[in-house]
């Protein structure tokens, strides 16, 4: 599975998007192996011009063995959807030769909720100051039905004034992430790099991330990272995207 993730990406297209990821996380140790985590996040897209998502999540993790951790969580997503439909072969305008198959047809825009559940297993191994880990995560996301008052018609270059309902949809996904972290002696910095594959019967996208954790003290950590997301499937209407992320984590 992970071999697919390390295949080279075929260049960065000029149409690649750029965004930011800002997050705050709190980690509470209930017992030595049991932890409770709360996280809030905000993302932007369209070269940082548009807020893409707000989210809040709750998760618990338990260290089964010294090298194996299990976790489960729930995240509430509030997304800024931009859903575009495209002309198909049986469309009347295609048959008349006015437009071609694959041309954008209509665009709907709205803020909507999604519910996300996940269960994970993470195995790790240390080689001195270097730690390697592999996380396998099952993820299920449910998007409720939503009706918009109108959509934008690319052909008419205007809003159509007609209601349209987007059906409810559920999606299962397997996320496989390989990560390497290195603790630098005498410096409170831990650089890391990771590759993550998103699979739903086929490889949909890959995320490449590189960054570092700066330990302010034992309870406070600041994270800065760069991420490139390469999309193989447009079913989620996501472009390839470069992102800069900044996070803050506090431990209790």
Explained architecture:
This protein has one helix at residues 92-95, and strands at residues 17-29, 34-45, 50-65, 68-86, 104-127, 130-143, 146-148, 152-153, 158-159, 164-166, 169-182, 189-199, 203-215, 220-231, 241-251. Helices cover 2% and strands 67% of the residues. It has one helix and 15 strands, in the order ββββαβββββββββββ. The protein has an eleven-stranded mixed beta barrel with strand order 1-2-3-4-5-6-11-12-13-14-15. Strands 7-10 form a two-stranded antiparallel ribbon. The two termini are 36 Å apart. The relative contact order is 0.17. With 252 residues, the protein is mainly β.
Question: What series of H and E elements makes up the topology?
Answer: EEEEHEEEEEEEEEEE
Average pLDDT over all residues: 93
How many strands, which pairing sense, and closed or not: the largest β-sheet? 11 strands, mixed, barrel
The residue ranges in which pLDDT falls below 50 over 5 or more consecutive positions are 7-14
Per DSSP E runs of 2 or more residues, the count of β-strands stands at 15
Helix segment tally: 1
Secondary structure class reads mainly beta
- Strand order in the sheet with the most strands: 1-2-3-4-5-6-11-12-13-14-15
- What is the rounded distance between the termini? 36 Å
Provide the β-strand percentage band.
over 45%
Gyration radius, rounded: 21 Å
The proportion of residues forming helix, as a percent range, comes to under 10%
What sort of overall outline do the alpha carbons produce when their principal axes are compared?
elongated
